[in-house]
TrEMBL record:
InterPro entries: Epimerase_deHydtase, NAD(P)-bd_dom_sf, NAD(P)-dependent_oxidoreduct. One of its GO terms (molecular function) is aldehyde dehydrogenase (NAD+) activity. It comes from the Bacteria. This is 3-beta hydroxysteroid dehydrogenase. CDD domains: SDR_a7. SUPFAM superfamilies: NAD(P)-binding Rossmann-fold domains (SSF51735). Gene3D superfamilies: NAD(P)-binding Rossmann-like Domain. One of its GO terms (cellular component) is cytoplasm.
């Protein structure tokens, strides 16, 4: 299959790109810079220069492909306006991808976060949030899945709060960065709230399985660790960096503070049983031992 991948050289994307190529697919990779284009070529993909804002490039990439995996996102959490702009940019790009693939029965695999449900781990049957700081992403992915009734094999891989590799990535990576800047390995609230996690190399396998197998209109959970307590995550980071570990105000974490403070475990039982997905790489707490002082 010839696959167009957005975000193909990031933490998750580079793993997805390698997984696709290893299983006989060819890849067109959207790249924003010369360095990213060179990385894609070294991996064996064909670079397509552009960004999520280049909608004609996005449309052309999808037109040339047998399927699409969408991973790119600006990841600008510096403030509410920056986050809203990132969500709006992604919405326009996904809408363009959906329009191009509509009626073709080709797969469009997109990404969202796992939802949170009070009192229990969320499952693939639970809806993603459509309100709050990242509610726009939930609304967009929901709209893309609804295109399944119009000849688009749209599916969503829901990612946990931390997708990690070699001690970096996701919410845990943000905690590490904030700890380096502030001199404290902090967590909001009492730290008993739980975050799910997955290794990037395991997540990459699920993206390939969704591309190859997933029925239209379905959602899947890329969750290995159902939920690690945030204070346990902060404790490993603090030990690795030689910093004190303590509660800090939610405002420390900017527009994500409220999300950081939320208990949000998630299950992947249905995904494992249905698609045969079996994570094999280190857990989050094991992988955080790779954080460098």
């Amino acid at each position: 299959m010839r696959v167009f991948v957005t975000g193909g050289t990031g933490l998750i994307g580079s793993a997805v790109l390698a997984e696709l190529l290893r299983h006989g697919h060819s890849v067109l990779a959207l790249t924003r810079s010369d360095a990213s284009a060179q990385a894609a070529m070294r991996a064996g993909a064909e670079p397509v220069r552009g960004s999520l804002a280049d909608l004609e490039v996005i449309r052309s990439g999808a037109a040339q492909a047998d399927g699409v995996i969408h991973l790119a996102f600006a990841n600008d959490f510096s403030g509410p306006d920056a986050l809203a702009a990132a969500v709006a940019e992604e919405t326009a790009a996904l809408t363009t991808l959906g329009e191009e693939l509509l009626g073709s029965d080709r797969p469009l695999v997109t990404v969202s976060g796992t939802p949170w449900v009070e009192g229990r781990p969320s499952t693939e049957a639970d809806p993603v949030p459509t309100e709050g700081p990242v509610g726009g992403r939930g609304r967009t992915v929901t709209a893309i899945l609804e295109l399944a009734s119009r000849g688009l094999r749209s599916t969503a891989v829901r990612m946990p709060r931390t997708v990690h590799n070699n001690g970096d990535g996701g919410f845990a990576g943000l905690l590490t960065g904030i700890a380096r800047r502030t001199g404290v390995s902090g967590y909001p609230g009492d730290g008993t709230q739980r975050w799910p996690a997955v290794h990037a190399l395991d997540a990459a396998v699920l993206f390939r399985l969704a591309l190859e197998q997933a029925p239209a209109g379905t959602a899947w959970h890329a969750v290995d660790d159902e939920g690690d307590q945030v204070r346990d995550i902060a404790a490993v980071i603090g030990r690795r960096l030689g910093l004190p570990v303590q509660e800090v105000p939610a405002e420390t974490f900017g527009p994500l503070g409220a999300i950081f403070a939320t208990d949000q475990p998630a299950s992947s039982a249905h995904t494992r049983q249905t698609l045969g997905w079996e994570p094999k790489h280190p857990s989050l707490l094991e992988d955080l031992e790779n954080v460098q002082p």
